[in-house]
Amino acid sequence: MNISVRGRRVPASPIRKLVPLAIDAERRGIKVYHLNIGQPDIETPPLFWEAIKSYGAKVLAYGNSQGDLDYIDSLIRYYRRYGIDFEPEDIVVTVGGSEAIVFSMLATSDPGDEFIIFEPFYTNYNGYAVMAGVKLVPITTSPENGYHLPAPEVIEEKITERTRGIFICTPNNPTGTVLTREEMEMIADIAERNELFVISDEVYREFVYEGNYTSVMHLPQVRDRAILLDSVSKRFSACGARIGNIASKNGEVMRSVLKFAQARLCPPSVEQYAAKNVFDNISDEYYRKMRDEYRRRRDVAIEELEKIPGAFCRKPSGAFYIMATLPVDDIEDFARWMLTDFSYNQTTTMIAPGPGFYATETLGKKEARIAYVLREEEIRSAMRTLAIGIERYNEGKR
Amino acid sequence: MNISVRGRRVPASPIRKLVPLAIDAERRGIKVYHLNIGQPDIETPPLFWEAIKSYGAKVLAYGNSQGDLDYIDSLIRYYRRYGIDFEPEDIVVTVGGSEAIVFSMLATSDPGDEFIIFEPFYTNYNGYAVMAGVKLVPITTSPENGYHLPAPEVIEEKITERTRGIFICTPNNPTGTVLTREEMEMIADIAERNELFVISDEVYREFVYEGNYTSVMHLPQVRDRAILLDSVSKRFSACGARIGNIASKNGEVMRSVLKFAQARLCPPSVEQYAAKNVFDNISDEYYRKMRDEYRRRRDVAIEELEKIPGAFCRKPSGAFYIMATLPVDDIEDFARWMLTDFSYNQTTTMIAPGPGFYATETLGKKEARIAYVLREEEIRSAMRTLAIGIERYNEGKR
User: Fold this and answer.
1) Contact call for residues A72 and A87 (beta carbons, < 8 A)
2) Which of A309, A353, B138, B260 has the fewest CB atoms below 10 angstroms from its CB?
3) Are residues B238 and B341 in the same domain?
């Protein structure tokens, strides 16, 4: 008796699969710097916790499948500040940004269909593609041109009769690249010419350090083809809240999403109430301070990375990740070794190996995603520990 | 540009699709008795709310994909009281029982595969079957024999080379039937003979009024074939918490489930903490009182139903639903009419139309699921309003 093919094929998360090794290391008394996961150490706003504590219901009842309507109103006001106009029926609240991804796939594709995606990309798209039975067709972007998009003909070459849409992520996880208005227009034109959906993951909207962010919803030519994926996880440092949303002006898409949403009943009620309190009352100052903090962290991470002989990266202009090329032959082996065989002053550094962020099998073997989600001095120590680790690892190989 | 076939095919929830009509009725000042949805009015235990208020973290961080290990320990202790032995690796915490359903399908089947299911069944299985691209092969059970299972040959007749498993639900939603030990053994034998998984939804474990509940985990012959689906929603009257779990002694299944779980990152953190506090500290008295309360509600609902000329139902021995045959020609039309055209003393009663609980298209047209989740006197009023509604509706048809 076998499990399913998809059950075997679904990849373990490259961000999470080394966690048992990290737990073992911690049990041995080693402090592990977690640069592997986009888990900010920034405190969740008190507005969130105050709402959690004052949640007044006596019965924790099922909520609306679409999401609480009051919360959706708050989201509408939030988007308006970015020049994006939604009506209540354009939005479905999801269980994290994760569920928004799978809903977008289910509503727009059938098994065997294809989506174009630019690699490296957020690794969990791989898991959802297996669940949805669809193929991710990768187009490789490279650090040499800052992970920006290739010419339109390179993209259109990959379009087949099974292609249903193009996935983009801006600001990007894992590259930190913010797509320019011109790039967004190019994607919109391709989508229009080829009748495709554009599915845009914009959860890092608030994390732009240089340049301007353009939303897929700013592009009138794809008004009916655009699907926005979003989440409060990073914005409010509330990853464990599991509150995201999907939004589109395409009524047919949203009616279909709502039916999928009905099957899973509702997103968590208490956290919607708490997230609403943050959206309604948070100051611009909060976002500005958070942005400044991450900009400094980025600069420290880059500064330390540049000291590692043979390491290479492009300075990212958004999100809180660096896709770095490291001077090791096999990053998977190195990442494990850092947890199982290495320590420096009773510390080690955990990174997310690059291959999990690529669909093309041969790529990413020298790359790692580094999440600069710790305080400046911790980032500095983590990067120095990483540098020493690389040196020792390569010595051992000689 | 079209949405997907599955996006069109996924059914709207029969429990939820009439909600907009109910909201309209309420706006017109009509009190709607919600017998359509399994949303208990029982208060969520103070232990739950106390934990929510005392959750001490400053950062609402990602949790483990498998679920918080402390919470899993509590679950293990809980199952032990029912004579079920799990190890930590046998359990993955899910976002409600809903996610447990889809994980069980994804881990054991591929698109085009089949599961046997006894109808009427919990309607949301239909939605998940569309998501997973699998076919639910229904075997009809009927009120005449208390919705108990047919002879093994009737079941084995439906097994094809694409059959991957048998779904059961005990105590059953929507019929309230508790499967006997003999029925469970029969299913286990069929599964063993035909190399199938047995996927058992036992979220109503605490709601047994007569007879004894047997878990799929009590059957040694399917130790490696059994998958348990569970949820705290009904047990703790915490439907909005979105905390469930899937469990199996089959390591391959659970490793695959864990990879699917990694793709969606983690279940909500705060609610796991709160549910743990309830599991660890709730008294047997709580469960006994809850059971007594629902038994009385059931008896009142049945008493009132029996007064309706032409209505028919079997007294269910578990869960908190009655699948009732009502003297109307078209239950869908009747259920709508109750919300749009009827009121009695400014009240009306909302029911879940039967056809949504069947996979066979012609069935359920005179049936409704009645959830007896309100206080005795409210149930009584709701059922009387229903009786008057039936009378008026049929008068109007003459």
Assistant:
1) no
2) A309
3) no
Q: Which residues of chain B lie closer than 8 angstroms to A19, CB-CB?
A: 64
Residues of B in contact with A242 (CB under 8 A): 95, 242, 265-268
> What pLDDT digit, counting tens, does each position of A265-283 carry?
999 999 999 999 999 999 9
pLDDT tens digit sequence for B191-210: 999 999 999 999 999 999 99
| In a domain? residue B291 | yes
Give a yes or no: residue B52 inside a domain. Answer: no
Domain count, chain B: 2
- Say which residue, A350 or A37, is predicted with more confidence: A350
A187/A327 same-domain check? no
- Indicate whether B139 belongs to any domain: yes
B240 interfacial to chain A (CB closer than 8 Å) = yes
Are residue A171 and residue A310 in the same domain, yes or no? Answer: no
Chain A partners of B258 at a C-beta cutoff of 8 Å? 12
Residue A358 lies in a domain: yes
The CA distance from B109 to A4, in Å, is 5
Same domain, A358 and A229: no
| Chain B: closest CA distance from residue A322 (Å) | 20
Task: Quote ipTM for the complex.
Answer: 0.94
The nearest CA of chain A is from the CA of B130 a distance in Å of: 9
**Chain B nearest CA to A319, separation (Å):** 17
Name, in order, each residue with C-beta under 8 angstroms of A35's C-beta and a sequence gap of 6 or more.
A349, A350, A351, A352, A370, A371, A372, A373, A374, A379, A382, A386
Q: Range of A321's domain?
A: 5-43+285-397
Which one of A221, A247, A281 terminates a domain? A281
Residue B32: predicted pLDDT: 97
CATH number at residue B387: 3.90.1150.10
Does one domain contain both B108 and B12? Answer: no
Please report, as a single letter, which amino acid is at residue A130: V
Task: Give the pLDDT of residue B13.
Answer: 83
Start-to-end CA span in chain B (Å): 46
CA-based nearest residue in chain A for residue B243: A268
A103 and A235 part of one domain: yes
User: DSSP H helical segments within chain B, as ranges?
Assistant: 5-9, 19-27, 46-54, 69-80, 96-108, 124-132, 152-156, 181-194, 251-263, 269-281, 284-306, 331-340, 376-397
- pTM equals 0.95
Length of chain B: 398
